[in-house]
Design goal:
The protein has no helices and 15 strands. The protein has strands at 3-6, 10-25, 30-45, 53-57, 60-63, 68-75, 89-91, 96-104, 110-120, 131-136, 139-140, 146-148, 162-168, 179-189, 221-230. A 6-stranded antiparallel beta sheet has the order 4-5-6-8-13-12, with no helix packed on it. The chain has a 6-stranded mixed beta sheet with strand order 7-15-14-9-10-11, with no helix packed on it. The radius of gyration is 23 Å and the shape is elongated.
Length: 247
């Protein structure tokens, strides 16, 4: 079967085609069959930027002609049983938000790592004038943010290509603008710890390849969801303090 391997910037798939050759000896009137083998491989970038996406729409980013698909969904409660389908979605201040980002791939050796989660008043990760980091370079920055590692039955999540998280809703000071949630993720290996997703909060240190010859590149996969808006009239559930609401 197809076997994946990893180097610093790529996941590489290798396989082999086996065929039959036929040789005819007209002089002696005989025919023999032989076997030939053709090895081949293809590689995909382990991380990527939006400009390399085959296409991107709200909630979904598809890259490498469909070989990798990233989906960011908003759910109605902590059971993750029902997705939010209709947007803009109304929220009250300090309400729990539940989201899930998924790498859609049949490869059992791939896993997903979350590098950044940001609230921004724009569908574009480069536009808008208000933003707030919930996770930055793998490090949690918001006091209400938490990754969810168990399902509704308190069992560990079995799929490493699924990441769930929760945080409390907020509004930007002196603004009632709609908010989009942006996630920046990377693809990792389950079997090769050198390219794993278990320690992404590295305080600025960059991981190196196994042989130390090259560093992982800085390209990432971006996916976004929204908009979310404050319910009318605005109500607050409890109290929450945003120490750095405008960056």
């Amino acid at each position: 079967g197809t076997k994946p391997s990893f180097n610093s910037p790529h996941v590489i798939y290798k396989n082999q085609i086996t065929g039959v050759t036929k040789t005819t000896d007209h002089t002696n009137g005989i025919t023999r069959e032989g076997e030939f083998k053709l090895a081949f491989e293809c590689s995909y970038s382990r991380t990527g930027a939006t400009e390399y996406a085959s296409y991107q729409v709200k909630g979904t980013t598809v890259v490498n002609d469909g070989s990798l698909r990233f989906v960011l969904d908003l759910y109605k409660d902590e059971t993750f049983a029902e997705k939010v389908e209709n947007f803009p979605f109304e929220l009250y201040l300090n309400e729990d938000i539940y989201m899930q980002v998924t790498l859609d791939s049949l490869d059992p050796d791939l896993s997903l790592g979350v590098l950044n989660v940001q609230a921004r008043n724009s569908e574009s990760e480069d536009e808008g004038n208000l933003s707030y980091d919930l996770v930055k370079e793998g490090c949690i920055k918001d006091s209400t943010f938490d990754f969810i590692d168990t399902d509704s039955n308190s069992q560990p999540l079995s799929d490493p290509k699924v990441k769930r998280f929760t945080f409390k809703s907020f509004s930007f000071l002196d603004s009632h603008t709609a908010i989009f949630i942006h996630a920046v993720v990377k693809v990792c290996s389950v079997s090769n710890s050198s390219f794993g997703c278990t320690d992404l909060c590295s305080n600025g240190r960059r991981k190196r390849s196994v042989d130390g010859k090259s560093e992982l590149n800085d390209e990432r996969f971006h996916v976004y969801q929204g908009p979310m808006v404050a319910g009318h009239p605005i109500e607050t559930k409890g109290e929450i303090e945003i120490t750095n609401p405008i960056l």
